[in-house]
Fold each of these.
Amino acid sequence: MAGLRGSSRDTWWKISGASAVVAALAFVAVAVFIHSTREVTPYSDSVTALVPVSSAAETTTSTSPATDPPMPRPVVAFVGDSYTAGVGAEPQSERWTSRLSSAMNWDERNFGVAGTGYLATAGVEACGSNTCPNYQTTALDAVAANPSIVVVSGGQNDVAAYAEDPTAVQVAIATTYIEIRNALPQVRIIAVGPSTPGEASDAALGLDRDVRDTAETFGAQYVSLLDPPAIAPETVLADGENANNLGHAAIAQRVQSALG
């Protein structure tokens, strides 16, 4: 029993000693906390008292919620002929693609090449180079810009070829839209048909229908410039072919109205 009592006494002292250490540490921690609190509070007050009114206002302003950054404008690639390139528009900001892009808040990327069409290529007189590619090639340049929207416009340079061999032009139209859809499956496509300042020929009307039908097959929205006519004699240059500022404004208004 004596041994047990001695052992119990030792155990008691160990427990008591450990408890005392814990209590001491707790006491010190509380003391440090109280001491630090007493020191920090007057210091904080003194700093606040020294802050100028203007600085306080700046501090308040900086804590206001930040405004959201502006949304990026959608990139829109335009494929087309001299109308799309802006021939006849003075200044260039008056061309129909730029007027439409400004109204729709688009980031315009213009791949228009004068004298070209879905099938038609051009030379020095039209585009300034020995050979300028048709839409089937420029469409590939357009999709490389990774646009949100692709606008394909025109076709009036293909009317003569369509009158002779509609099939060749139809294949070129289909190839153009296949290339765009395959490269960018989710892209929005807008097809703007051919135009003429005078009465539309049977070939022009047939081309207009084929562009419409093919474009819609590939999920494009179609905008006709022939039904009703968007271009009139007074809206073209003296050459009788290219649009002046009035013509560019008329096309931009027609497309914007169709897009809603």
Amino acid sequence: MLELVHLRQDRIEVDRATVGRRTDGLVVLLVPLVGELLALWIATPPPRGTRSPQTLAGYQRCIDKVIAPELSKVRLHEATTGRIETFLQAVRTVSGKRDARGILSQAFALAARLDAVDYNPAADTSRAPTSSNSARALTVADVHELRRRVLAWQDRDLGDGTKRFGPDRAHDLAEIVDVMIGSGTRIGECLALRWQDIDGLDGDGPVAVTISGTLVELAGTGVFRQDHPKTKSGHRTVTIPSFSADALRQRDRGIPSPEGLVFPSRLGTPRWPGNVRTSWRQVRGDDYTWVKPHSFRKTVGAMVERELGLSAPSAQLGHSGSAVTEKHYIQRASMAPDVSSVLEKLAPIQSVP
């Protein structure tokens, strides 16, 4: 049975039957199986930084659904690079391959640091291909058409003067969309906005919105407001256009929210982002299936970059630098070098009169 040394016993609950002591006084954990190593890894704080609850939930979801069914009963010395490579190649989705490889690499790195294995077998496996989805932004005409569809959906307008019957629909989806378009926020950031985060709404001047948090969805826990955005650089104040300010002015429905949320649920609690995504899928139509709430954020980045350069959208979107903005949010054609002077040699010969 392989031994795994755990330097900080107080950070993880362990079965006493698996604990022994080496002569140097370090705690020894016996974890012969990959599943046991993964349980130890996810409960062990990383060497640097911290892991948020939603990050841990994502790791656990990948372990339970992707890794554990194939590898949990495999002994550590049997988890060779070739075996892990075969497993990863069988994972159906690119994101699943990427997440599983990252988790296994980190878990076996922990095992290697603690001398449970001689080397990290996941480190030399093939990397999953990066996403090929390029940034795709909406045109101005697209935005106008989608806004029209949102209003028609909210009004149950069938297009022939009649209205569809049925249960009440989210009647503020249009306001949510206009705030996202005018601010470049993620959907969780938009739904986490509080009235105290908005300045100037009662005046005639510019209206500024401070992005100070986001909503987090955790299985078994529900949805709650996290008091900081996704990243440190995501905490920012943006000036919104007049149509977004008007949407906020129309937004106050008088629903009491203990946290003062601008877009609460009907009960005044944080609103599930997944419910907004569901409503959006009902609105957009078959010809706009590629448009997601995050597409509005990409549209903001692309439009601002075209008008003001790359640094402006990086600040607007809350990125730590322009590299992320350029890679994921800016849609542009490749610019070839100017070789027109060379190609001019192929011009037709001008006849001399």
